[in-house]
Each structure stands twice: as structure tokens, then as C-alpha cells.
Amino acid sequence: MKMETSIQGLSASLQTARSARKIIGFVPTMGNLHQGHLNLVREARNLCDVVVVSIFVNPIQFGPNEDFESYPRTLEQDSHLLAEAGCDVLFAPSVEQMYGQHQRLTNISVAQITNDLCGLQRPGHFDGVAVVVTKLFNMVQPNYAFFGQKDFQQLAVITQMVRDLNMPVEVIGVEITRAEDGLALSSRNAYLSEEQRKVAPNIYQNLKLAEQHLHQGEALVKVLADLRNALSEVGFEVDYVEARTPMLENVEQFDKDIVLFVAAKLGNTRLIDNLQLKYIQP
User: Fold this and answer.
1) Would you give the DSSP letter of residue 256?
2) Nearest Cα residue to 6 out of 74, 107, 62, 89
3) 37 is catalytic
4) Cα dihedral value 23, 96, 173, 247, nearest 10
5) Residue 65's pLDDT is what?
């Protein structure tokens, strides 16, 4: 595996692959990798000739009171994991390499689907994601890009952006990787205390319970209220409990395929999860 820290070095590493019309797969990350990230790499390895992974903690997608400075940076450990998972090129640029010294005057915003859920709680976050992903797509020029479905809204934003701007890349969503107790794997899980880690799986457990109740015919509004209350009772500070279509449109009842979304804090750690539900015609 090669590691490149400059845009020029990345381009040089991929020049032969591009000339030979190799299929390039790309996995953008912020590092501090876990099995969820590595599953994205393995998926890319299965479908592509060359696999590129980026590690870049993107400052413009963090809010002023968020954890940019303290976000774990574990490049040496991550590089070993990536080599074992089948990565060919690791791109690990600095902030200066990505954004230069000049003032950035260009922004990228995806309307409507960023207005609520995490977009409401983290203003400007998805603009920062859209900018950095666009820059990385321009640098890597992949055929396929792989994103985890845990960040379902982010996946929807990137898919919409690629479609709207005719970017020559196919975005592939990969299912959520979970711990044995159901907790969705996330780099931020490392912030949880031992006691909080025992409580955290309640999100997935209650999502599955909500699914059961919906399939039994309970009203969506009641199921969502019960889900919120159940999480609050075990110590979560709930940001939102919502249901949307897979295109993030509002829904009032379970009469089509939907996605249940949860964002909640344990202490200072914000966790997100979702569950896709197939509607079965009675």
C-alpha cells in the first residue's frame, strides 16, 4: 500500500491505473477506523481494481462547539488496518494541502434534505461535507465511492449532489456494521464511558421494537413517541426521533417503505442510528 500526503503524489500514484482504465474505488474517511470502515474497503476491493482510502478530519464540517480538535487521529494504526483490508493507496493530506492558504469563496449546498434531522442540529455541517467530498472526488476521480448507511442523511446528500452535478461517479451505500449487542459502529463510540457503553445498544434495541410494533399495526406517531420516551428513560438526551421515506420525505403513517432515524446523546457523546423498514401490503 502506498501512502500519499499531497494531491500531486496522489495523482502520480493513480496515473498508471487511469491510463490502463482500471476501475477505481474510493472510501473517504476521517480516520480512527473501525470494522465499519474496513467493510467499506472490502466492498470496494470486491468491485474495483484499485482501492483508494482518504483519511482527513475535515474542519469545515465541524461546528464551533464540536469535537474537531479532540477528534481521534490514529494514522499509524489506521494505515496498518487498511493495508490488511486491501487498500492500494492511502491519501492522508493536511488541512493546508486540502484548502490552501487562500480564502475559500465557493460553497456547495444541497437544499431541502439538509433542512432537518442532523442538518437542523448541525447547521453548515452538510455544506462542509459536500465541499470536501467534491474536492476528494476531483482529486481521486473514482468510478465508485462507498459510504456507510449509518450516516443515511449524508449518503442521501452525496447521492443527490452527484446526480444534480452530473459527477462521473457511482455512489454505493453499504449496510451498517454493528457490534454484537447491536450498537452501530462509530469512531465516536470511543468517547463512551464503560457505563454509557452498556446503555448505548438501547438505541438499536428500541428501533427493532418500534419496527415490531409498526408491523403489528400501531400508529406511527405513537411508535415514535414511545421510542423517544424509552430512550429518555434509560438516560439518553434525545435530539430527534423521526420517520422519513428513503428519499427523506416526511411521512405520517407506515404505508410505504420508511426509515426510522434516531440521534441522541449519552453525556457529551452524540450517537446516530437508523433502521430501514419495508412496508408489507396487508
Assistant:
1) S
2) 89
3) yes
4) -130
5) 84
Q: Determine the residue type at 83.
A: A
187-274 classified as CATH 3.30.1300.10: yes
The edge-to-edge listing of strands for the beta sheet with 269-277 is 237-244, 258-266, 269-277
C-alpha span between 52 and 10 (Å, rounded): 9
Q: State how far the Cα of 109 lies from the Cα of 273, in Å rounded to an integer.
A: 23
Q: Which of 37, 102, 125, 213 is catalytic?
A: 37
**pLDDT score of 197:** 98
Which stretches in the chain have pLDDT values below 70?
none
- Which residues belong to CATH 3.30.1300.10 in the chain? 187-274
CB burial of residue 205 (10 Å; 0-12, 13-18, 19+): middle
What are 25's strand-pairing partners? 51, 144
Evaluate whether the domain defined by 2-174 bears CATH number 3.30.565.10.
Answer: no
Distance between CA atoms of 95 and 98, rounded to whole angstroms?
5
Query: What secondary structure does DSSP assign to 38-75, as a single string?
Result: HHHHHHHHHH-SEEEEEE---GGGS-TTSSTTTS---H
Distance CA 156, CA 110 (A): 10
How many C-beta atoms surround the C-beta of residue 250 within 10 A? 9
CA-to-CA dists, residue 277 to 156, 237, 281, angstroms: 17, 24, 13
Angstrom distance (rounded) from CA 17 to CA 11 = 10
Distance CA 36, CA 228 (A): 26
Closest CA to 271 of 176, 173, 189: 189
* pLDDT at residue 282 in the model: 76
CATH 3.40.50.620: which residues of the chain?
2-174
